[in-house]
Design brief:
The chain is about 30% helix and about 35% strand. With about 400 residues, it is an alpha+beta fold. The chain has 4 helices and 23 strands. Helix 2 packs antiparallel against helix 3. The strands form 4 sheets. Strands 1, 17, 18, 19, 22 and 23 form a 6-stranded mixed β-sheet that branches. It has a 6-stranded antiparallel barrel with strand order 3-10-14-13-12-15. Strands 2, 11, 16, 20 and 21 form a 5-stranded antiparallel β-sheet that branches. It starts with a helix and ends in a 14-residue tail after the last strand.
Length: about 400
């Protein structure tokens, strides 16, 4: 019984001490000053019209690669041009041995003379027998034979004249000239080689002013661009109103602007891309055939573009996101789609609307649901630390 009273007294003592300690803690807490709300700097989202200029890798091609082949079969007598240099239209390139072709021209001319002589004789014979038919000195068959001979002589003359045209054509083509101006490759054949008509490739001339740049645009981009145009997110002036700006692989911006002049009607099945061709002036021969370049298409504009500073966009496990201050002055996390850089800002495709307040400075001291004191961000005080989301 005595032990029970002692236990109760001990518990009562502990309770009193605990109450005294709790009261002391409450007094200490009450005496501490309240923590101020975190101060953050925000930008208010505003939509604007921006150029939409997608960039792709393209390959340069000569605007006219012309293959040089002989029109006649013969022995190559001379190569008349400096290899790898500029040639002008009409410059002499090759000489085929002309002797056999001169003989063919002379033979054709002789056949024409023979046919003309037969024609004269046939006309004279017909002129003699026609009056005799009225006197019944000759038969109708004799007249008909004379008429047939005249027609045959005329046909033979026309055939001989055609042979002369062909022989003269072959003769003229023993001298091969440049059909266009451009840069000529090395010769594939030299003196003494028998070249076959329209078969053996002698060389190639490349017209490099202007130059073509061929770009293969992915199907996924084409589909997205079409949806954006239909949704009025992008103002599109028309395919053939687009222009091209070119950047060389060393980062040099090409000074001349190109014009889109060909859009293939279908996709290439092996790559699921659509081929596009842009024509660039090339007076200084900066662009070379086979060269890889970057092409930026200009002409399209985004009608409701959203830009935010790079430092405001963070990378999380689910992708890029930003902190937004809502109407209750509390912080929210907003997932965004950041598609491209515009200077020191991110272009946001989805996730933000006009009027949203995005946190730029003070990010490290806040979290979702935190109450904050939001003030406008001053760009001059920013220290950009861009991290490009994937």
């Amino acid at each position: 019984m005595e032990k029970r009273y002692q236990l109760k007294a001990h518990i009562a003592t502990l309770w009193v001490l605990g109450a005294i300690g709790l009261a002391g803690c409450n007094q200490e807490t009450a005496s501490m000053p309240a923590q101020p709300m975190p101060r953050v700097e925000v930008v208010t989202v505003q939509t604007q019209v921006l150029p939409d200029e997608p960039e792709f890798i393209g390959r340069a091609e000569a605007s006219r690669p012309v293959e040089i082949r002989s029109q006649v079969t013969g022995i190559l007598k001379a190569v008349l041009y400096p290899e790898g240099r500029d040639v002008k239209k009409g410059d002499r390139l090759y000489q085929i041995d002309p002797v056999p072709f001169k003989a063919a021209v002379a033979s054709a001319k002789a056949k024409i003379a023979q046919a003309e002589a037969r024609g004269v004789q046939a006309r004279q014979d017909l002129a003699r027998v026609k009056p005799l038919l009225a006197e019944q000195a000759v038969s109708q068959k004799d007249v008909d034979d004379a008429i047939a001979q005249e027609l045959s002589a005329n046909a033979a003359l026309q055939g001989a004249q055609a042979d002369l045209i062909k022989a003269q054509f072959d003769m003229d083509n023993t001298l091969i000239t440049a059909p266009i101006s451009g840069i000529i490759e090395r010769s594939r054949y030299y003196e003494g080689r028998l070249v076959s008509a329209q078969t053996d490739l002698l060389t190639t001339i490349h017209r490099v002013d202007p130059m073509y740049v061929v770009v293969n645009v992915p199907e996924t981009f084409i589909l997205k661009r079409r949806r954006d145009i239909e949704a009025k997110l992008i103002a599109h002036p028309g395919d053939y109103q687009l222009r091209g700006r070119l950047t060389l692989m060393d980062g040099t911006v090409y000074p001349q602007e190109g014009v889109l002049d060909l859009l293939e009607p279908g996709l290439r099945t092996e790559t699921s891309t659509r081929q596009t061709r842009i024509t660039f002036p090339n007076p200084n021969r900066i662009i070379l055939p086979g060269q890889f370049v970057k092409v930026r298409f200009t002409g399209d504009t985004k009608t409701n573009a959203v830009l935010v500073p790079q430092r405001a966009v963070l990378q999380g496990p689910q992708g890029p996101f930003v902190f937004v201050v809502n109407r209750e002055e509390k912080v929210e996390i907003r997932d965004v789609v950041a598609s491209d850089w515009k200077g020191d800002q991110w272009l946001i495709d989805h996730g933000l609307n006009a009027g949203d307040r995005v946190v730029v400075n003070g990010i490290m001291q806040i979290g979702p649901g935190a109450s904050v004191n939001a003030v406008p961000w001053v760009a001059a005080n920013a220290e950009p630390t861009p991290t490009r989301p994937q």
